[in-house]
Each structure stands twice: as structure tokens, then as C-alpha cells.
Amino acid sequence: MRSTCARCLRPTPFCVCAGLVPAPSRTRVVLLQHPREARLAICSAWLTRIALENVELHRGVRFDDHPRVRELLAGPGTALLYPGPGSIPAGEASPTPRTLVVLDATWLQADRMLRDNPGLAALPRIGLVHRQESGYTGLRREPAEGHLSTIEAVALALGALEREPARFAPMAEAFRRAVRLQLEATRTRRNPRHRSGRGAPPRAAPPACPPGRRGSGSASSRRQGRPASSTARAGPASSGGACAPLGGRDRVARRGVHLRRGWVIPLAPTEPTCPSAPKT
């Protein structure tokens, strides 16, 4: 299994922590992330989380029963970073909002989140005036011109609100570097599932599960004594070695860990560190 940076959650060869120092800001940024966005290879909300000092990240779709989010939405000086009629350009906002809520979701998901959270939809809105091209160009198609990733939008908004764009420029640069590395990898490396079988060593047969254990393949294979299907694996010794099917449902959260795209990340009270990250 390839190693992963515990800070940016990228595979070690694709780590973007170098030069990414958490930037201070007077405005607190609150990221409300749709659960499906957390599955993306490049999670710009998580990069935003490690690129700022005054930031919170909460995951979900409905936040009516979320005590912390409800407290933030009800607090004075809270605004929503979202375009549309009635939004005020970030550079013209006065006074500067104390808390800036940002939705990390597709536009369709964001519309649903606003519909399902009336308190969120009722917030005053902050918009962006820019001519910047999205850093996702070449990797992910934006629905229209002028749309940006979450981290780019936050960097532009904070730069305009606090009149200091250079302080937040490294955030967007780290994201663009992550996209460049991902694009380079897709150009130089083919998907292993699509490789030709010529010259490749034969695959080892999957280990067979002992008879009588659950999940050890189809009923017919167990009756006839054939090896178990490759979609089964042996469970831990504490569970009696029972086999469990692999798949998307196998990546559910367990106690003490958070599973994301197959990566196991310990949930520790301290901030994750990276050898490439600059010392603060």
C-alpha cells in the first residue's frame, strides 16, 4: 500500500505541503462539505482546512441538528459565500463578516443544501468579482465560466475582505500544484486495470476461506470446494477469521479511524504533520 501524507492526505509523491503555511485571518471560515466531495482525489476543502488558522470543517447535508453549525449560523456577522442576486462583492462588504460560511459541493448539491437548511439560505451573501480561470482546468469541467474550486474562492474572498490578497495566494498555488501533479500522472501512467496481459506474471489465486465461514464466496463454490471469490477477504482473528465482502460499503467509518477513498487516517487530537511542511 502506498504511503500517504498525513497532513494533505495526498499520496507522498503528490504531497503539496511544501510552502503551505497556515495563514492567519480575522474572518473565521466555516466549510460545510457535502459527504460526496470528501471522496474526490483532490479535496480542496481539506486543503483549505490545513491552509488557514481560523477555519472549521463540518461534513453533512442537513445541519438542523448540528449544535456547532447552528451556533455559528445564529452568530452576529455571519455571511455565506455564494453568488447570485443580492450578493455583495467581497471587496465592498462593510463591515467585514466575522464568519464566512462556504459550501463545498457541486452546484446541484449546494442548491439542495440551501433548500434543506433554511437558516443557511437566509444568511446575507458575499460574492466574488474576478476573471480568474479555475485551477481544475484539464482535470474537472466547471459548469460555467468563472466558477472556481472551494480553496480558490476562499483565497479570493479573504484577500478581498482583508485587503491583502498576497497572504492567501499560497492556498490557490498549492491547489494548482496538486492538479498539475495529478494531470502529469494521468499522462505518464496507464490504469493498471487496462494494461495488456502480455508478458505480465500470472496472478496468484486468491486465498480460499475455510469451509463453514460466512462470506467465503458463493454457495455453489463452498459446496464444490472451489476457492473463494476475489471479492472476499479474511477478517481479523478476534472475529473468528470470518470473511467479509469487499466494496464501497466496506469503507465505512469505524471507531477511532476515518476511511476516505480507502485510506485509513487516525483521528488524533493533534494536528497531522508532514516532513515537507514549513515550520511555523
Topology summary:
Elements: E1 28-33, H1 44-51, E2 55-59, H2 67-74, E3 78-81, E4 88-89, E5 99-104, H3 107-116, H4 118-121, E6 125-127, H5 150-161, H6 165-188, H7 219-224, E7 232-234, E8 243-245, E9 257-260, E10 263-266
Parallel strand pairs: 1-2, 1-5, 3-5, 3-6, 4-6
Antiparallel strand pairs: 7-8, 9-10
Question: Can you give a write-up of this model?
Answer:
The protein has 280 residues and is an alpha/beta fold. It has 7 helices and 10 strands. The chain has helices at 44-51, 67-74, 107-116, 118-121, 150-161, 165-188, 219-224; strands spanning 28-33, 55-59, 78-81, 88-89, 99-104, 125-127, 232-234, 243-245, 257-260, 263-266. The chain has a 6-stranded parallel β-sheet. A hairpin with a 2-residue loop joins strand 9 (257-260) and strand 10 (263-266). Helix 1 packs antiparallel against helix 6 and helix 5 (150-161) runs antiparallel to helix 6 (165-188). The chain is globular. Residues 193-199 and 214-270 have low confidence and may be disordered.
* Apparent shape: globular
> How are strands sequenced across the largest beta sheet?
2-1-5-3-6-4
What Rg do the Cα atoms give?
23 Å
Query: What fraction, in percent, of the residue positions are helical?
Result: 25-40%
Mean pLDDT comes to: 75
Compressed to H and E, one letter per element, the order equals EHEHEEEHHEHHHEEEE
Strand content: 5-15%
Low confidence ranges: 193-199, 214-270
Biggest pleated-sheet summary: 6 strands, parallel
| Count of helical stretches | 7
Q: Count the beta strands.
A: 10
The N- and C-terminal alpha carbons lie at a distance of: 31 Å
Structural class: alpha/beta
